[in-house]
Amino acid sequence: MHRILSFFLVVVFFATSFWACKPSPDETFGSGAEWFEYQGGPDRNQYSTLDQINRQNVSRLEVAWEYHTGDTGQVQTNPIIVNDTLYGMTATVRPFALNAATGEEYWSEEGGDVHVLNSNRGVVYWKEGGDSRILFARDEWLYALHASTGEPVESFGDSGRVSLKAGLDEDVADKMVMSTTPGTNYKDKIIMPLRVGEGSGAADGHIQAFNIKTGRVEWVFRTIPDRRAWL
Prior knowledge:
Blueprint: H1 9-20, E1 80-82, E2 85-89, E3 95-99, E4 105-108, E5 124-128, E6 131-138, E7 141-146, E8 161-163, E9 177-178, E10 184-186, E11 189-192, E12 195-196, E13 207-211, E14 217-221
Antiparallel strand pairs: 1-2, 2-3, 3-4, 5-6, 6-7, 7-8, 9-12, 10-11, 11-13, 13-14
C-alpha cells in the first residue's frame, strides 16, 4: 500500500508561515492573526489577517519541513496552532503535537486499531489557568488529553473519555454515533455535532454540550422533537 505524507506542502507552508508571522502580544483572540480553532475561529470563516505570504511571493515558497505520520488513508485535518505548537490528526484518527517552526514531534498517540469508518477534521484546544487540554472524537467517544503531553485527563469522564451517546435516547446503544468535525468551545463547555446513519433506523442526531472539566453532559438540543411527547 502506498504510504502517503500526512501533510501536503500547502499545509507545511501554512504552519511555518503562521509561526513566522506570529502576532504581537497585544493582538487578541479573534483578530484573525491566530489559528486557535478549527477553520480559524468560532465563525469558521478560514480567514487570516497575516500578510507576509501574498500573491507576489507565494511562487517562491520552499519546503521548510515535512512530517510523516506513518499511516495511510484520508487526511482531513485542519490543524490548529497555539503558542507555536501545531495540533492535528492522522488518517487513522490519532492526535499529535508538533513544533510549528521545525516539525519536531512533541507527542503523538500510539497506533492501535484502524478506525475505517471514522475520519476526523481536527481537534479542540481549551485552557484555564495552568490546565490546557486537547479534545477530539473517535468512534462514539469524546476524548480529553493534556495538551503538553498527550496523556489522558483522568478526571474527564471515564479515565479521559465520555460517550457521545450519553445525552441521547436509550435506543441508540447499537446505532452508529460519531463526530468527524471538531466541537466548539464556549467557556467550560464543548458543543459537539454528531454524525449518524442515513437510514430510517438511524440514531437521532441531537446536539450536546459536555463540560470540558468533568465530561458531564450539560445540555442537549433536540434536533427532532421528543417522540415521547406525542404519545
